[in-house]
Structure formats: structure tokens, C-alpha cells
Amino acid sequence: MKDIDLSEIKSPADIRKMSLPELTKLAGEMRGALLEKLSVHGGHVGPNLGMVEAVIALHYVFDTPEDKIVFDVSHQTYPHKMITGRMEAFTDPAHYDDVTGYTNPSESPYDLYSLGHTSSAVALAAGLAKARDLQGGKENVVAVIGDGSLSGGVAFEGLDYGATLGSNFIVIVNDNQMSIAENHGGIYADLRLLRNTNGTADNNLFRAMGYSYRYVNYGNDLKSLIDMFSSVKDIDHPVVVHINTMKGMGLPVAEADKEEFHYAGPFDLKTGAPLHEEAPQTAPEDYSELFAKGMLRRMKENGKVVAITAGTPGVLGFDKARRKEAGKQFIDVGIAEQAAVDLASGLAKGGMRPVVGFVSSFLQRAYDQFSQDIALNKQAATFVVFYGSMFGMNDETHLGFFDIALLSNIPNLIYLAPTCKEEFEAMLDWAVKQDERAVVVRTPGSVAVSNTEIELLDDYSKPTYEIVREGDGVGLIGAGSMFGFMQQAADLLAQQGVNVTLINPRNLSELDTAALDSLKDYKVVITAEDGIIDGGYGQKVASYLGESPVKVVNLGLPKEFLNRYNYSELQKRCGLTPDQIAQTAMSALK
Amino acid sequence: MKDIDLSEIKSPADIRKMSLPELTKLAGEMRGALLEKLSVHGGHVGPNLGMVEAVIALHYVFDTPEDKIVFDVSHQTYPHKMITGRMEAFTDPAHYDDVTGYTNPSESPYDLYSLGHTSSAVALAAGLAKARDLQGGKENVVAVIGDGSLSGGVAFEGLDYGATLGSNFIVIVNDNQMSIAENHGGIYADLRLLRNTNGTADNNLFRAMGYSYRYVNYGNDLKSLIDMFSSVKDIDHPVVVHINTMKGMGLPVAEADKEEFHYAGPFDLKTGAPLHEEAPQTAPEDYSELFAKGMLRRMKENGKVVAITAGTPGVLGFDKARRKEAGKQFIDVGIAEQAAVDLASGLAKGGMRPVVGFVSSFLQRAYDQFSQDIALNKQAATFVVFYGSMFGMNDETHLGFFDIALLSNIPNLIYLAPTCKEEFEAMLDWAVKQDERAVVVRTPGSVAVSNTEIELLDDYSKPTYEIVREGDGVGLIGAGSMFGFMQQAADLLAQQGVNVTLINPRNLSELDTAALDSLKDYKVVITAEDGIIDGGYGQKVASYLGESPVKVVNLGLPKEFLNRYNYSELQKRCGLTPDQIAQTAMSALK
């Protein structure tokens, strides 16, 4: 058998010519290249290492791109990208950044969607299948979804609808016995039972939902996978193929600690130790750490305090040790944001003090629950927003600058934007103590900043702006993580003899009208927020001051799905550097 | 046995003293009172008639309000209200409007939540159960959910989490074999199988999710229900009790046509005929009718056009006859808004022209899918918003004035607000023809208005404002259903010698900056929209014109959960009558 030259794999046609031994060798080569890239570049380690064989088998059996495969979350598609014309991005360090970490239609016709949120693949694929049926097509439609993503409501909705298609519809359930952390939910007992019975148990979630069902116990064995996929190719009804795979396969440390190696930065291939520039103990403090430490303290002070996550405990700073320390006061509902919000509502109604932590981009998965079950029903739950910033995640699927516009326009919901870690703690302390209001607290930026001069309050229920510096003519309102830039702009202006009024608004959902009234005869008021301008905080100010002679300038982000942008370039584009803010003020004074 | 005097039923304690024959008589009396009220007052006919016995049995067996019952959607709680101190509202016409149509904590301690959206009860109840467990309580926690609501993703998320509680948690699945219309989804085959096997089939969705399971075939038989509920009272683990009930029981026309009598206005008790003031053929045309007729035409013109609903075909004007006429081009995914949006995304990707119709208040259940799977992925699906207006539904759970702020701030999504039925048709025609953009079209108000003078376009892709009347000094921008009031205000102002510029903005998601630039030296620009001011269209205008000397006044609704408000009082409160608008303009000119 000749050697496999990865650079010769230009498309799935190149692997369809291969024999099983060659494919096996290919899998080994691909896994080796992945390990190499992941160890120096970082990325979704576990999901991709576990799916090498399944992805090869899928492209071997199905006639992609005519046959259509939708990968859920698509964070497991590095092997898919390798096979579909993008090998170089995994073998040549100079090209490592040529591809995104998710499927991306602008990269390849083999990528159907830009996906980064979980659980949607089945419903999307059902749409593709329905379009095929209505147009008399014959192609296979395949959805690939992990066991962790199955707990999201839209996965269930998609499965429920897909079962009624009455035509070719193939759902591959990639069961690696893990979500990002361990799985939570009643369905996982059934998946375990199915694995333990080699798929023969009567108690079968998928059959109960209307699917025929097949099981592959060796989900990293190419022959088993190829045989099974071949057997369902061109099937005439909806089928679930449940494959049992090993997350992190081929990297012993990742096989052993699946949570740690779900996603990782650069690491030592032998030991798995992270290759940080600085030692971990000197790494900048982050809000995950701060949050977890603060919550453990609050839990000890008050047995009614509970922290809740929807499948991302690490974002909340709750690693395994801290989860153990929190005990019953830490709840992971699995990837199920809607249930997380409703659970918090029920807990609050039942007298507890729930605090839910969300990645900014994911909280939008539960808008209806925020609106109906929290805000309308005035349940005093607290929500902490992580990575809600232009300086957070910069993949187009995970942007953190839509949450202000989303949540601050819901009645009865207080949206607080602290400027620094001290204020974050104070606001959270208040939110957890009081039992009358639903509160959102946004972590200020991505790295913890300290500002001991910010005035802390015991009560944040009313919108009261902090007048940090009193000047005249120019008002700078810096919301949350933008406050620091505004403060620097104020310094620059002071150097030019312009003494501005500098304001920390604290609350982005309600206006402090008395404070704003005092600015009505100013020349200009500039607002800055770490979110889109449209629908955000600054536009409330512009509207309120619309009848006054004062000019209002709203700074913030454009309403766009930016992708892998450069942070400082974006800041400049938005006019949010201290220099630019000062210039904007000077122009308005002319 | 003595007669039952309904007025003596003040609380569940009064029914717990009764014998089975007395309870049976009570059920009959209650059903009679319900029929009487429903026939003259209207309301959710089918759901309530079907649940009389189950609600009596629940309150008979469980020690409410210490034991907690969360009713999903809570549109089936008229019998519950009768038993829990609010009988008069069902027996005395003078008090018919004393209670809302949903559970309402401000009415009674027996009502835990104000609920009107489906599928959340299980997750909410799971929170109550968890709060109990963490505090060492002993009460029963019961969620009551209908088969129709089961298809919503949050129901599944709640069931999945609830199964892990390991403690008392009772889910009553009220299976009346109907959603609002017929059910759609793979799970319904399993529910049917369970009914047909008296609950004994191996293929059991609820067991597969981790619940123990009981079945009551005669779900309108008090003894069966009482025996079953007694057997699960104080159970120490999660259990599903599946009860087979008859929707509309006791009203033959409702039993026969369950869809028509899910919700009904006043009707003749004998014939079921609606008691309209005017004959149906002279009733005002509504957008449901217009939409369905227009869509059937588009479907015939183009086989790729598909209409999609998430369980509310009637809202889209697709009654049974029209569904039959549309054939495969009409899709009901069941109550599963997320799947509806993703299905549309898949259909668009597959070359079809999908159009999804949503009640304004329900589209917020799929925000993440709008954002990620439609807008980010630029799929050319069309969404039509019904009842998106202050003149639509006025229950606090069904308000129609949040959708502009919600959807118009999503990138890549064009939000169109037609002013009249002619423009609605033109915009929808364009949206369905083009295949490059995702488009939202809002029905203008609740009753179809005609305006043959509005300029119609072939292409609405770019934001171009219609300058309906050119004046000077005062600009009135009337969005969608508010345009008519603005036009009347313009007339009033003309009578006072003030010739204003009157604008129909058409597009609420992007600004026509050229049109706005021409207003910069005006005295005042007034915007009016049929939605909350916060995060809405007017604030974009205020922000854009913030640096210009022109005053901007934004008219619209307050950010509040209003409940059963009076339409014209609210219009006045918002300053949205033509008189008030004219006065606002005159004041600004002074």
C-alpha cells in the first residue's frame, strides 16, 4: 500500500477511490495532522478527534455535495474541511488561519451553513429534505448532531417534525457521552441504555419519536461506519443512526479529561499542559474566575443562592472542583437555555435566589422565557452575561454585541452594565440579595479591570447615574466596558482645556431623566456602549434628548455580523478610541 | 343527594368534602355554567370543556395551594378559577370580565404564573420542585401540559431536566388529540399508540425520557382520575400521567369540530353558529383572509412557494378547505416556532420560497433561529407578522408591540411595515419573488385598510421613503399602521395653515438617510410606530438626526406589559390620536 499524501486529497472523490486499509491509513494521517495543528493553534480538540472516522465514512458513502450533510454546531468539521478542499489549512502552519472553526458556505460548497449555536441541524436538514421532496429530488439529506446538542429544544422540534417527512432523512447521533462538560437530562439514561444493549433496548427515544433506528457500537471503526452508512443510503424514511464515538480519540490526555479538551488553546502534545506565554498564576484575572469565587462566597452566606448554567459551566468559572464545592447549589441543565431561564423562574418563585450565567450570544436562545416567565411574571432571578463585548468572541456565530438591544427593551428587566470588577461584584451582591426584580448584570469586557474610584451602591433598583466628573458643555456617557475609554477621552479633553461631565450610567434599560435633564443645554452629549447602536442604550438617550437643543452622538457597533475581525481595527472603525472620542467632542464644540 | 349550589364553592376545601356522586353533579353544573358563559362571552371553548373533571380531580386530590399546579398556556383554567374562589365570574354575567382568560397571580394564590405562551409549564414546575428539594419541602409539584404544547422545544427541555430531579414531580399530559388544529410531529404517533394499547406499548416517549408512566383512558371520568392522582400523590420520583380527554366535551358541535371551537366568540348553544352582530359576509376583511387568498394565488403561480405555520393555521387564514387546496405547499410544524424558522431556512437553501406566518407575540420564541439560521446565513425566507399592533390582542401574555424592536435590530433582515392592504400585497409579492434577502412583513393593524394612493414598488430591497406629501418645517413619519393617524394629523395641520412633509418609511430596519437629510433644517420631525419606543424605529431616526438642530419626537408605546387595556385610552395615553399629533407639531413650532 502506498503512502497517503494528504496534499493529494482535494475532494471527497479522492477518498472514494481508496480501499479500507488506505482509508484507515488516511484517518491516522488526518488525526496526526489535527493533533499537530491543535497543539500549536488550539481549537475544538475533543469533538474533531472523535469524528475523524465518521466524517471520512460520510464522505466515502454519500455523494457530497449533491447529498447534503448539515453538521450541528459544526465545531467538529475540521476533518470535513480537510477532505473537502481545505487540507492545507490543517497541514501548513502558514495557512492555519485560512479557515474558520465552523462550516462556512463562503469557503466551500460542501458547507451548507455557517453554524455555531447548537441543536439546529436537524430542523435545518428537515427543510432541505422537504425542499427536495417538493421538487422531486433524490439526494440524501443527513443531519449530524452530538449527544450534548440533543438537549436543546430546537433539536427536539426538528426531530419531531423530521419524523413526519415520510422520505429519506438520516440523522446521525454522534454519542461521545459528553456535552462540553458531562451531560444532564433524562434522555442520557436512555442513550446509555441503548449503548449498553448494543442498541436493542425497547426503551428507545428515537423510535418513540417515529424514527427507525440503527446502532454502531464502534463509532471510530471505519468499516462499521461505512457498512452502516451504506445500509441507510437512499433509505426511504426517517432513520436515526446512533454512533458511539470516543471524544478526543488519539490524544490520551483528551480521552482522559474530555471537558478540559473540548476546546483548548495551544498545549504540549505529550503532557497536555497549556502552552501559555505567562504562567497561569500570572494570567490576567477573568470574570469567570471572579464570578465563581464570588458565587461560592454568596452560596455559603445564603443557602438559597443557586448558580445555573446551560451546558457551559467553565464559562461561569465552575470547574469540577468548584462544582463539587457548590454541591446542590450548582445546577447544569445541559444545553437548554430555555429550561435554564424557566428553572430560574421556578426557583425564584419557590423562594430561592437563582443566578444564571450565559455567554452573550447564547442568551438569545431564551428570549421568550426572559420576556414571559421572568419579566412579565416579575421573578427575581439574576442573569450574568459573559463575553458581552466587542472584545469577546469574534466568530460571526458567537458575537457578543447584540444582548443590550435584546434584553434592555424587555419591560421589568433591569439591565446593569458595571464599569469594573468592583462594580460588577457590588451589582451582583445587590441583585442576589433583593427579591423583587429580575436583573441582568453584564461582565465589563473580557479581562477584569479594576477601578476603585467608582462609587458603589447598596441598591441599584432605580436608574441613578454616577456623575464621575462634573464639567460643562460636553457630556460623555460611557456605559460598562466603554467607560474606561470615555474616561481617557475626558483626560485628553481636559488637557485641551475642555472640562467635560463624565457619566457612568450603570443602568442601560431605564434612563436617569434628572441626570439627562441637566445636560439639555450642553453643546453635545456622546454616548458609548459595547454593543450595536441600533436598539441600544444610546438611542434611548438620543430619543429622550430629541427635543432639546443639545447634539447627541451615539457611539457603538454597526448592525452587522462581523467575522473574525481585528479588535483594535473595529474599535477605530466605530470611533471608540479615546482620541477619536475627544475629537468628536471637539468637532461638536466648533 | 342535595343540589349543588355553585355559589357555595369558595375554595377547593369545599369540594374535598364531597362524595363522588356530588363531584359528578358538580362537574355537570360547572360544565353547564361554562357553556352558558362561553356561548355569550366567547373564550377557549374546547380546552376548558375537556378539562372540567381533571381540574376537579386535581383540586380534590392535591392539597392546593400548598401543593403546586402549573397549568401550561393556562387557557384551560376556567374550571380551576371556578373552584378557587372565582365562581361568580362564570355564573354571573355582570362579573364575566372580572377574571382574565389565563392564570393570574394577582387574582389568586392558586395561580402561580401569568402564562399564555405554550410549553413552559414543565420547566417552570421543575424549578418549583427543585426549590422545594433544596429547602426540604414536602409538597407535590404538578405540571399540566396538553398534547399540542408538547411539541414546543422548551417542553422537551423541561421534561429532560425534570426527569433528573429524583424527587416528587408529576407531569399530567392532557391528551385531547388536538393542538389548536390537528397535531403534527413524530411524537403523536407514539401518543396514539399509547392510547390504543391502554398505555402498555413498549415504545413510550416518556419512559424513554426517564419518567415512570401511568395512563388514564377515561380522562373525563372523575373516579378514574381521582384514583390515579391519589396513586401518584406524594410519589418520590418523576412520573408522567397521561390522560385521554375529550376536547370540547359536552358541546356536540365542539366535539365534532375541535379546531373551530378551540377558541370562539359568542355562539348559538344549539347550532354552534357564531353570533356576529353583522352577517359574516359583511364582516370587515382581515389580514388572515387577505394573506391566505394571496398566498394561494402565489402558490399557483409558483410551485416553489410554501406557507408555514407553527400550530396556528387559522391565524394565516388557512382553514381546512384552504389547507386542502394548498396541499403540500402548506406546512404546519405544530407548536414549534424554532423548527418553523429553521425549516424555512432549509427550504430557502433548497431553492423553495418559504413564507412563515406568526402571531407577533409568538415569533419571539425563535429569536436565535431568526438571527443565526436566517439572517446570518442570508436565507431568503419571508415572515409575516400578524396582530403586530396595539390594536391586536391585549392580554399581557399576547401583546403585539414588541416585534419591531426585536426583529428590526437583527442584521440582514429587512423589516417592512406596509401602511395598507395594497402595500401589504405589493411588499409580500416582492418578498416572495426575490431570492436574496430575508424579509419580515408586518400586517398593518388588525382590520384591513385600503389606501389606493400609496405608491407601490417592484423592489423593496433598499430603504426608500415615500414622500407622500411635501411641505416644510414639520416632518411626520408614520410607520405602518400609524400612517393613517399621521395623515389625519397632516390634514388637521393643513387646516391651520401648516403644510407638513408626510412620510411613509416602508422599511423600519434601515434608514433612508437621503430622505432624513432633507429634514435636517426642519423645526421638528415626529415619528410614530405601532410598537414600543424603546429599541424601535423612531429611536433610529432620533439617533441619526441627533447632531442636527431639528427636534425629534418619537411616538409609540411605553415599555410595559399592559393588560386588557382599552385601545382608545392607550392611543391617547401615547399621544397617538391625530389631534394630539397635530398639537405636538404646533407646540414644537412655537
Question: In terms of topology, how is this protein built?
Answer:
The structure is a homodimer of 590-residue chains.
Chain A: H1 12-16, H2 20-41, H3 45-50, H4 52-61, E1 68-71, H5 78-83, H6 88-91, H7 121-135, E2 141-146, H8 153-162, E3 169-175, H9 187-196, H10 205-208, E4 212-216, H11 222-232, E5 238-244, H12 252-256, H13 287-301, E6 305-309, H14 320-326, E7 330-332, H15 337-349, E8 353-359, H16 360-363, H17 367-376, E9 382-386, H18 403-407, E10 413-416, H19 421-433, E11 438-442, E12 466-469, E13 474-478, H20 483-495, E14 501-504, H21 513-517, E15 524-532, H22 537-544, E16 551-557, H23 567-573, H24 578-589
Describe this structure in words.
2 copies of one chain form a homodimer. In chain A, the strands form 3 sheets. The first copy, chain A, has a 6-stranded parallel beta sheet, sandwiched between helices. The first copy, chain A, has a 5-stranded parallel beta sheet with strand order 1-2-3-5-4, with helices on both faces. A 5-stranded mixed beta sheet of chain A has the order 12-14-13-15-16, sandwiched between helices. With 590 residues, chain A is an alpha/beta fold. The N and C termini of chain A lie far apart (78 Å). Helix content of chain A is 37%, strand content 15%. Chain A is built from 24 helices and 16 strands. At the A-B interface, helix 7, helix 8, helix 9, helix 10 and helix 15 of A face helix 7, helix 8, helix 9, helix 10 and helix 15 of B.
